[in-house]
Amino acid sequence: MQTTPIDLARLAAMEPAEAGRVLRGIREAVLDGRRSALAPRSDIGASWRRLLDGGLDPERGARGGLLPREEIERRRCESPLRTVLPVLREALVTIADAAQHIVTVADADARLLWREGTAAVLRKGDAHGFVIGSDWSEPLAGTTAVGTVLVTRRPVHVHAAEHFVAAYHSWTCAGAPVTDPRDGRLLGVVNVSGPPNTLHPTVLPLVATVARLAEAELRQRHQTALERLRAVASPLLGRMTGRALITDGNGWPAAVIGMPPPPGRIQLPRPPSAGRFWLASLGMADVEPVPGGWLIRVTEAGGPGPVARVVVDLTRPRYASATVHGAAGSWVQELSPRHAELLGRLAAHREGRTAAQLAEDLFGDPTRTVTVRAELSRLRRQLPHVITSRPYRFAETIEVEIRHPEPAPEDGPPGEP
Angle at the Cα of 171 (from 165 to 177), degrees rounded to 5? Predict the structure, then answer.
């Protein structure tokens, strides 16, 4: 039997009760391991497979405790999303109120930090545990337009029984990621949620557009801050000789002397600190603080020398890093999700993996070797002397430590007592 993924526009054209029956039938078939004429949409089906593999209870999900008030306030104050709340409110809240939706903003840990809506719809959200401080990460809450967006880094609409956890079938939600233009870090998710009868195909494009507007506002603020730093940096560099530059706290160059401007962001030590470091794009350099950023004096080019130990930190997947210890001291390389996944696979197979084997590991498709080789080429430039080829593996003399996340707690859905 050939299966056809259900289309969101088709669901929106149905009566809510009929759409609910169709989606429940698809979900039941997947949970029972049966084939049916209709299949879930690709992002939904992929999320369901992850959750089935992880053993999440499809009826109740798992419970995550609420953040204490002081932790909520700390995260709000530290989040760059705080500065774009006026953009989100102006673009979404009036429309959401008319459509009986809640507007929420979650951080990169899937914790709800802000929410707005009418009193009636907020009460409905309370019944689902959709409250400030709650945890909506996919391993706990299942397929939602918060947790699943954070996994896919793409806009996602989850309607009724497309939610993996049955407790949330009386809800429809659309979410989109917001990325920090300064460092590519995923900041969180803007989401609108409401009753199933409010489903409309235009909701997801609207939310995605608003997320892009928020990123544009962050980008403009960043450029303004760089201009201010440049006014301070230029006179300081003008009194120096040799190769040097001044960057902001994220490594973006504001002014340069004695060398061509770097093509992008400089990977600073993490956390940024004064001292002598090997920087992947520059070589050995002395780093010292200046008002609003960092002064970097390049002392010598070349690689970091022999590497003795690598610690790959995956405890917070969206902030993965590799700490390298070697002849040039210790330095930290931030990792993209794909590079973190590659290092995890290579650590599990110290004997090595071919490009085809890694393509099968990452994509379930051994023919995607071109993508794998391109990613590994970038990764080897970022981590010199760490990864060898033919097959790809950690160098034999390197001690490798992988730090994994703590296992998620089990029990009922988020917010449930």
Answer: 85
